[in-house]
Amino acid sequence: MVFAWKAAGLTYNRYLAVAARVVRRSLKEDKRLAAERRGEQDLRFSKWSNGKQGEVKNLAEANAAAAVAAANAGGSA
Questions:
Q1: E strands of 1-77, at which residues?
Q2: Which of 1, 29, 41, 46 has its CA 20 to 30 A from that of 7?
Q3: Which residue ranges make up each domain of the chain?
């Protein structure tokens, strides 16, 4: 037996994200806004060296900055 999400080529995590979005969009306005705020994720990371934690950074902002740096480095070559 193959699950529908697997047959559609989705991972289980992606399937859950899509299902959660559908449920949030089906709610009434006031409940929907609160649910959408809960659904937002803010991932942070930091590098550790010699047993000490470095600066904590936002993952989305760090990825955007790295993409800009890579584009600038590639364009100037």
A1: 44-45, 48-49, 52-53, 57-58
A2: 41
A3: 1-40, 43-77
| SS3 label, residue 8 | coil
Mapped onto helix, strand or coil, the DSSP state of residue 28 is coil
Integer Cα distance of 69 and 67 in angstroms? 5
Neighbours of 58 (CB within 10 A): 13
Tokens of 50: 């010699």
73: number of CA atoms within 13 Å, CB side?
A: 6
Write the pLDDT tens digit of every residue in 5-38.
Answer: 788 888 888 888 888 888 888 999 888 888 877 7
Name the phi and psi angles at 26, rounded to 5. Answer: -85, -10
> 12, 5 in Cβ contact below 8 A?
yes
